[in-house]
Design a protein that fits this description.
By secondary structure, this protein is an alpha/beta fold. Helix content is 41%, strand content 17%. The protein folds into two domains: 21-28 and 37-145 and 287-315, Response regulator (Rossmann fold); 147-285, 3-Layer(aba) Sandwich (Rossmann fold), CATH 3.40.50.2300.
Length: 335
């Protein structure tokens, strides 16, 4: 079990389909062999946050909260501009590896192996390299967010609803994410959880979808074959937004009492639909402000020689229409 910092939770963000490693040529700047030892503890005054999914709505919220947290702590933070492009991510990371003013980088790797090939450059230059959203070979620490547990929590919510509303039987579409560690573990949590909490439910299809557009497209395609789907669960909240739109476009009433739409991540339009009594019934997410705190605390902790920060796994929260803090979740995503 991963140690948990006395911070809060963090923010989970969906991964976008990874580009192939062959599209990238990376120079490691050192001979092959065992990874370089971690840098000796030293104060962290500047952090680079390498978050490539800049087109996702959560990026704006996350970057704002992280800047506020860093400023309050007297830490400088800079963001890469990868624009969801693996080649660009590698290029940016390679540049920052030699910047003397940078003490640590936190990277949400589009391809962990490609990004991992340059980790040694950071360690050789006395900088900390911290993974976000999935392990990277050679990392000094990792920031994760209870991937499997999140999927299991969503499945438990859906399973309870299936038992109460549909007498335990339902046809389920799973919008999966197989592009990286976070997506695979979340998807597995959903699938295994459904077997546990709704053993008589049937998963009629699993389709890759992580954006609203993909969620809409995949749901519409599956509905053409299985118009009687009762439940759609998505490993990424943005895909769940598309699923909701697909069901409505197919003629399903947006407040249909016999349909359950759920996803992972606090997608603001879905949270608002949930509050309005629509068929969005469960979302599992981390808290952006708590995640922003972790983004600062982990590298600073490394710099202070605090080994307990090396494996940070943030808690996740189930959000339903009955959640007393639903308005706070909506506000956090729309500020």
């Amino acid at each position: 079990m991963r140690a948990r910092l006395p911070l809060g939770a963090l923010l989970a963000i969906p991964a976008v389909a990874a580009l192939t490693l062959s599209a990238c040529t990376v120079s490691t700047g050192s001979e092959s062999g065992a990874p370089a030892a971690s840098a000796p503890a030293h104060p962290v005054k500047k952090i680079v946050f390498d978050f490539p999914y800049t087109a996702l709505p959560i990026y704006t919220t996350m970057s704002r909260y992280t800047k506020e947290e860093a400023a309050a702590r007297g830490i400088e933070i800079e963001f890469t501009n990868d624009n969801m492009d693996l080649n660009r991510q590698i290029s940016n990371l390679t540049t920052y590896a030699t910047r003397k003013d940078v003490d640590a980088v936190i990277s949400f790797a589009m391809d962990p192996n490609a990004v991992g090939s340059i980790v040694r450059q950071y360690r050789d230059n006395g900088k900390y390299f911290i993974s976000y959203g999935g392990d990277i070979p050679g990392q000094d620490a990792s920031i994760q967010f209870s991937f499997t547990k999140a999927g299991d929590m969503l499945a438990e919510s859906a399973g309870g609803w299936i038992s109460r509303t549909l007498h335990g039987k339902a046809k389920v579409l799973v919008l999966k994410d197989e592009s990286n560690q976070i997506g695979k573990e979340r998807t597995q949590g959903i699938v295994d959880g459904l077997k546990k909490y709704a053993p008589e439910a049937t998963i009629v299809d699993q389709q890759q979808a992580i954006t609203p557009e993909q969620g809409l497209s995949m749901t519409s395609t599956v509905l053409a074959k299985h118009p009687d789907i009762d439940v759609v669960l998505a490993a990424v909240g943005d895909a769940a937004q598309g699923a909701y739109q697909g069901l409505v476009a197919a003629g399903r009433p947006d407040d249909d009492p016999d349909t359950y739409v759920g996803g992972l991540d606090g997608n603001t339009p879905l949270l608002q639909s949930m509050k309005d009594g629509k068929m969005v019934r469960g979302l599992v997410s981390v808290k952006p402000r708590e995640m922003a705190k972790a983004v600062v605390d982990v590298p600073v902790g490394l710099g202070e020689g605090n080994a307990s920060v090396k494996d940070y796994n943030a808690p996740v929260y189930l959000i339903t229409k009955e959640s007393p803090d639903l308005d706070e979740w909506i506000k956090a995503g729309s500020e």
